[in-house]
Backbone:
């Protein structure tokens, strides 16, 4: 029997793992335009023990204390990339639903006129929601809960990992240059999702299902939150995507701010 303080889960960093969705030339240019380039990254770790979703709190706690993780897990502090470096004294792991297998979730944007048949996003009068400038019906639908189209998506649909990726890309960073057309947001959303989640086919029904478990995570040192950042922000996040079959844990991280200039 292991003692209470001994980790149930131990990790290795898979340094060579590539994420084409963040590394292709085309997507790097888009992320630059959206003020996210140089502030978003994905990393992959493996773990050595069987995992079931009810163990999420132990899993994330062990993850954020593991020497291999804290010496490799990247974050932005003071506008510079660094590694976490310290074990967390406490963590949160919010379950993020992850069941959507098709991009048809976004078809209703066209049905309801948020996006025109041509793919162009419908414009609106400028307004602000916090620090986000809203100049089109898409951002209005995403951010303003009493807008006409907010109810296009239920709370449970907005909670889905696929929708969250789309939401984060549309919001972008501090100097986001918004797209006039919807397709680039959809393309990058789909590619990031495919890079991160794992599916398997039921041998009898031949139906696909997602095996990944997704958690939105934060970590504290004492009373202070330090990961994903010291300051909470709608577009600063860390998602942990666990594949219990392959025993991998991928991290998708973004820290809201000004993109790097190259």
Residues:
């Amino acid at each position: 029997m292991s003692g209470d303080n001994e980790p149930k889960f131990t990790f290795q960093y898979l340094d060579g793992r590539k994420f084409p969705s963040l590394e292709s030339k085309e997507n790097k240019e888009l992320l630059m335009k959206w003020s996210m380039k140089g502030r978003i990254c994905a990393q992959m770790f493996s773990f050595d023990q069987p995992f079931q979703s009810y163990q999420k709190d132990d899993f994330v706690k062990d993850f954020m204390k593991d020497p291999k993780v804290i010496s490799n897990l990247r974050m932005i502090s003071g506008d510079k990339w660094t590694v976490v470096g310290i074990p967390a004294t406490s963590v949160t792991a919010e379950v993020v639903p992850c069941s959507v297998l098709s991009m048809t979730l976004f078809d209703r944007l066209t049905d309801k006129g948020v996006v025109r048949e041509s793919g162009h996003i419908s414009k609106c009068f400028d307004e602000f929601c916090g620090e986000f400038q809203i100049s089109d019906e898409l951002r209005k639908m995403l951010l303003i809960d009493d807008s006409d189209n907010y109810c296009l998506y239920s709370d449970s649909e907005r909670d889905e990992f696929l929708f969250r990726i789309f939401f984060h890309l549309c919001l972008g960073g501090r100097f986001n240059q918004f797209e006039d057309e919807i397709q680039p947001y959809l393309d990058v959303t789909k590619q990031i999702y495919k890079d991160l989640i794992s599916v398997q086919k039921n041998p009898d029904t031949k139906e696909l299902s997602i095996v990944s478990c997704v958690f939105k995570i934060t970590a504290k040192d004492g009373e202070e939150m330090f990961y994903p950042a010291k300051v909470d922000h709608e577009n600063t996040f860390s998602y942990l995507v666990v594949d219990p079959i392959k025993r991998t844990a991928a991290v998708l991280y973004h820290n809201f701010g000004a993109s790097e200039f190259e």
Q: What stands out?
A: The radius of gyration is 19 Å.
